[in-house]
Inverse folding.
């Protein structure tokens, strides 16, 4: 039986669904002033099954279920990729999923709650695993598809169903860190460290060492390494890649997962304020109004310069990163560099 508080929330959500049946659960949670995990948890015993927090076990067993659809999103961008879990590596709070199609970087310290969710639809049931952080915000979701081995998926859920009651304690996120004044940044030291990078993965350590915000560093570092571009440059870069058939990499992250698409993008569609990629194995939905700043960024590596287009919202939170397709040990695609150079030239004209 639901508590009085939960019964009230369930009634309010029921009314909202009646008024706006197409509203997504994330938006419904924001409208109702609660977390998404709290709405999912209302279905425990009917549509939702709490999972144990054995994230490593769940991920290691995912290859058994075959093809799925993985979804990672932030406030302004949704990244959906179809494929199989292949090479799963979990070490402590960090995980990697490496494969032909599914490519994930996992930060499992942020994973606090998990549910198997069975949503009734007109054409059947939509089955998923949904994982949430301490604030009840979704960090990653895995959906069964027509190509999923449902028997294996059900067996996995059975293995990791929580046998003890799960407490859904919600701890809101604290405020984002505030950048130090520009005048306090050791800009000479930052430029020297940036120029000396051997691998793109050194970037975040460098920001921490110099206690500089990411966008702050991009603003200050100088045009040799970063240039601020008009917001339209993000779309122009993707459209240029689509027109040329060039394979690119699109990174979209939540607090607990970065999900990566590698390959061409083919079908680009505008719908009601969203810019979309609608390809058979990859969908992306980008909220146009959420993009506040766009930069082209160059990072030195042992394989040569690596160039990216990076988008941020009004709070300087990263929305997505875009690169030319590449693997470690291989130089960057010259065609990708040409696209970025062309976008920069258009911005300067």
């Amino acid at each position: 039986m639901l508590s009085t508080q939960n019964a009230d929330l369930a009634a309010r959500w029921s009314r909202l669904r009646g008024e706006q049946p197409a509203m997504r659960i994330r938006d419904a949670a924001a409208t109702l002033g609660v977390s998404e995990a709290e709405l999912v948890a209302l279905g425990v015993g009917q549509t939702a099954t709490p999972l144990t927090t054995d994230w490593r076990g769940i991920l290691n067993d995912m290859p058994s279920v075959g093809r799925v659809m993985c979804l990672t999103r932030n406030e302004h961008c949704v990244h959906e990729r179809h494929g199989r879990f292949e090479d799963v590596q979990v070490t402590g709070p960090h995980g990697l999923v490496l494969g032909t199609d599914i490519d994930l970087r996992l930060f499992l310290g942020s994973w606090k709650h998990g549910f198997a969710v069975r949503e009734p639809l007109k054409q059947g049931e939509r089955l998923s695993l949904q994982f949430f952080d301490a604030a009840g915000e979704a960090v990653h979701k895995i959906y069964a598809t027509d190509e999923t081995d449902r028997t294996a998926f059900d067996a996995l859920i059975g293995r990791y169903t929580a046998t003890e009651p799960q407490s859904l304690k919600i701890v809101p996120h604290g405020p984002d860190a505030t950048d130090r004044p520009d005048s306090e940044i050791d800009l000479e030291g930052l430029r020297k460290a940036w120029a000396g990078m051997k691998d793109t993965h050194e970037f975040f350590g460098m920001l921490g060492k110099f206690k500089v915000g990411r966008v702050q560093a991009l603003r200050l570092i100088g045009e040799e390494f970063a240039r601020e571009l008009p917001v339209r440059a993000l779309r122009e870069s993707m459209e240029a890649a689509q027109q040329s058939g060039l394979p690119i990499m699109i990174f979209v992250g939540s607090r607990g997962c970065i999900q990566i698409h590698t390959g061409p993008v083919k079908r680009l569609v505008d719908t009601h304020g969203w810019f979309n990629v609608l390809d058979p194995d990859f969908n992306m939905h980008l909220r146009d109004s959420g993009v506040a700043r766009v930069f082209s960024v160059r990072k030195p590596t042992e394989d040569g310069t690596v160039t990216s287009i990076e988008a941020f919202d009004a709070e300087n939170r990263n929305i997505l990163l875009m690169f030319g397709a590449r693997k470690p040990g291989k130089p960057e695609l010259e065609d990708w560099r040409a696209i970025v150079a062309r976008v920069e030239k258009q911005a300067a004209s």
User: Anything to note?
Assistant: The first strand starts at residue 48 and ends at 50. The chain has two domains: 35-159, 182-266+288-348.
